[in-house]
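Study this:
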Amino acid sequence: MSTIRPLVAAPLALVTAVALAGCATGSTDDAGATESETETVTFSWDRNIAGEDEDPQYEETVVEVPTDPENIVVFDMASLDTIGALGGEVSGAPLESVPDYLQGYLADDAFNAGTLFEADLIEIEAQQPDLIVIGGRSSALYEDLSEIAPTVDLSISGSFLDTLERNATFLGEVLDAEDEAATALADLEAGIEEAQAVTADAGTGLGVMISGGSLSALSPAGDDATGRNARGGLIYDVFGVTPVVDDIESATHGEPISFEFLLELDPDYLWVTDRDAAIGTEDAQAAAAVLDNGIVEQTTAYQEDQIVYLDPTAWYVVFGGLDTTQIMIDDVMQIAE
């Protein structure tokens, strides 16, 4: 049995210091400010300026963001989560993509800013936002949106926990909610440590994503904890689940796995994300129905009632916000009940 140590080896407060000193920084610039001047927070990140089919080419991008913005447009659901959790309100977003549990963080008259991939530039400009937040799927919108208002990209950069800390701290400064951000992060740190203590004694596990009736084995993110890799590796990298094999990606060749292969691996726990449920695929077969067969019934996870169905929206769509991270902690803690 292989053993993968959890990556949370240092207090999150220390991670914050490193993250803010590196690719992103947050500081209030109020030196010499007069009553008519707006205080700002500086945010910087390495932005890929290469074309779609070109090798990545990164350039440091620095943006001055006004504090206490009254009109915020958000394309990144994790950021919408954190802004709302810190007491802020979002004026515009891709409304059809906002999960039910985050609807309360939208203004009553919130406008539809487009989709996660395409912004309604005319409507956004008409609304005159003070701040635009993008990330992940919407990162490609930066050039167009930055011509309308200060725009920051809060995509995962580095590890999931580094980014969670960086973004919550930055948004806390922007919203004048530094104490609230620090308290929320401390609570999540404690919750993650508690979940890690539970998974440490749970034997082996395998993260599985189910879509279109097919199974894909998820791998630890390793050194590339960005975007899709971060999503797949969360159960191992953040919550300390021990992978059933040392190198899942090599064992599966990066391809969908069969039920027979699942039986061959035979992890103690299956951690299941239903992608179709996350993205609202019509007439899709539920993950539980896909796993309801004679082969899966022979596995340890099935026989010991150790198939854990994770909240699909939290783990696949929103991952990275304050409320969502608590949902993820609660999902993992199901095995302690």
